[in-house]
Amino acid sequence: AADHAPNQSLRMLRCGLCSQRAAQALAISLRALWPPAAALGVSGTKDNPRLGATRKGSPEEASFCYGTFPLGFSWGVGSSAFQTEGAWDQDGKGPSIWDAFTHRGKGKVLGDEIADLACNGYYRVQEDVALLRELHVTHYRFSLSWPRLLPTGIRADQVNEKGIKFYSDLIDALLKSNITPVVTLHHWDLPQLLQVKHGGWQDVSTANYFSDYANLCFEVFGDRVKHWVTFSDPRTMAGKGYETGHHAPGLKPHGTGLYKAAHHIIKAHAQAWHSYNSTWRSKQQGLVGISLNCDWGEPMDISNPKDVEAAERYLQFCLGWFANPIYAGDYLQVMKDRIGRKSAEQGLDMSRLPAFSLQEKRYIKGTSDFLGLGHFTTRYITERNYPSRQGPSYQNDRDLVELVDPNWPDLGSKWLYSVPWGFRRLLNFAQTQYGDPPIYVTENGASQKLHSSQLCDEWRIHYLKGYINEMLKAIKDGVNIKGYTSWSLLDQFEWEKGYSDRYGFYYVEFNNRNKPRYPKASAQYYKKIITANGFPNPREVESWYLEALETCSINSQMFAAEPALRHMQMVTEITVPTVCSLCVLLAAVLLMLLLRSQS
Predict the structure, then answer these.
(1) Is residue 219 in some structural domain?
(2) Angle of helix 521-532 versus helix 458-477 axis, rounded to 10
(3) Which of 380, 568, 569, 570 gets the highest tally of CB atoms within 10 A of its CB?
(4) Does the annotation count 443 as an active-site position?
(5) Pairing outcome for strands 180-186 and 139-143
(6) In total, how many domains does the chain have?
(7) Given 443, 470, 494, 496, the catalytic residue
(8) Is 247 inside any structural domain?
(9) Mean pLDDT for all residues in the chain
(10) Cα–Cα distance list, 455 to 197, 468, 541 (Å)
C-alpha cells in the first residue's frame, strides 16, 4: 500500500555527466533521498534556520547533464481559460466564481484587477496558435471554461453551442499545426450558479454535475482530444478557496472547508475517469489523469529525525493528499491520525477529514492513466508543534514550518525561488511512491523579477536550463517522464496577484486594447531546447544563451518604440479623417460659391 511506500526502495540521486548509471536503489526509507549532512555542507542551526541554515549547493547540481531526452518526448506550454480568454460575458458564457470574486473588488486581487479582457485570447486563437508553432512545441495544455460550455454549470439546463464551437475550432487549429491538445476540464473557474445554489465544492452534488460536464466534453471533443486532465492543482483550489479565502469563492471555514472540498473533488475525478473508461475509451483511445502541484520539502536538519519526518509529512499533506486516494484508495494514515487526533482535542466527535467508504475506496483506487505533476520551487522543512487550542487549520494540522535559504536565487515573487535539485527529488519520490506511473510534468516555470517589463529575461533562461536538466537526470534515474509543460505561453491574469506576476514566454501589453504579444529571450531559448530535444553539448547550449539575448535586445528596441508608433497611429486615426472631412467641407463651400457666381 502507498501508506508504506516511504519504506520502499529509492534510488540515490546522482547523474555525474550522465555517463554513470544511477546507484542501486536502497531498500531503506524515504530518508535515502537526503544525503549525509557533510555532503551538503549544512552550516546552520535549528535555533536560527532562516538566516543561518545555508547549504553549499547540492550533489545533484555538481555537474550539468548533457544529453537528449527519449525519442517521442513531448514538449509544450500551458495556459488556462480564465487567465487568458477574457470575453467573460460574451457569446452565451455564464459567470464563474472568479468573475464574481474579482468583480467584488475591495482588495480581493492586487490592484483590484479583473480578468474581463485578460489576454483577449477568445478573439486571438489563430494568432496564439501561430505563437505555438513559432515555439515548435509538440503539445499545448489549455483548459475549458465550464461556464462557457454550460452557463449554469448544469448540462440539463443549457448547452452553449457557441462555446462548443470556440473550443472545437481551437482544437482543430492545433491539430492542423501538428500540435497535440492536452485539455484540462477544470482550472478553478467553477460556474457561479453552482456555488450560489449548491455550495460549490462544499457539496457532493457538484461532483455529479462535474461528471455530466466531463461527459459532454468527452462526447463533443473526444474524437480529437486524447489527453485529458480532470483538475489542475486541486490542493490550491481547495486551500485558497475554502481555507484562507484568498481565491474564489473566498470562504474561510478553517480546517474543515478545504478537506470537504478536496473530498468531493477526488470523487468527481473518479467519476469522470470511470465515465471515460466505461463509455468512451474503447472508441477514442485516450488517457485521463489529474494534475497535482507540489513543491519539494527538504529537512532543515537532516540529522534530526523529527525534521526528516516533518519533511515526509509535508510531501504527504501536499502531493499525497490527492495522489494516495487515487493510487491506493484512501488518505494516508499520517493525515488520518493527525487530523483525527487534533479534531478530538478540539472537542469534535468526528475527524475534520472526511472518510471514504469501502465501496468508495475501491471505486477511486486506480483512477488515473498518468500522473500530472506541477512543480515550481523547494522549501526547507522543520518540525513545529501547533497546540490544538489554536484552532483548526491546515497549517496547524501539519505541525511544520516552511523555510527558504537566503542564498537561493530570488525570482521576484515572494514564494518562488530557483532550486532545481528539488525537482529531481520530487520526480523520484513520485515514481517510487505511486508505483512507477507515467508522469507528465504539467506545470513548471518562473515569473519575472519584480515589476520588470523587459524582454531579456535571463533569469528565466537559467531557471529553465536548471529545472529541465534535473528532469533529464530524473529520466536517467529511471523515472518514466513522458512530457514537459512549461508555464506559461503568455503573461496572463495570475489570480490574486492580478497582472503583477508574469510567467509567459510572450510579454503581453495589458494596457493596450489589442493586447499585443512580444517574444522574450526565454522563448528563443526554450525553442532551442525543444528542437535539440535536450542539451547536446556545452558549446551549442552556450550559443543558445547568447543568441537568445541578442534576439531579445532587438525585440526590446522594437518594444520601446511601440508607444511612439501607437501615438503616431492614434494621431493618424484622428488626423486623416479630420483632414478629409475638412477637404470635403471646403470643396462643398467652393462649389456653392461657384454656383452662386454663375447664377
Answers:
(1) yes
(2) 20
(3) 380
(4) yes
(5) parallel
(6) 1
(7) 443
(8) yes
(9) 88
(10) 45, 21, 20
